[in-house]
Amino acid sequence: MGISELHIVKRDGKREVFSVEKIKRAIARAFLSVGGYATDEDLTSVLSRVHVSDGMNVEEIQNQVCLLYTSPSPRDGLL
Question: How far is CA 55 from CA 1, 22, 39, 72, in A?
Answer without folding.
Answer: 12, 16, 29, 29
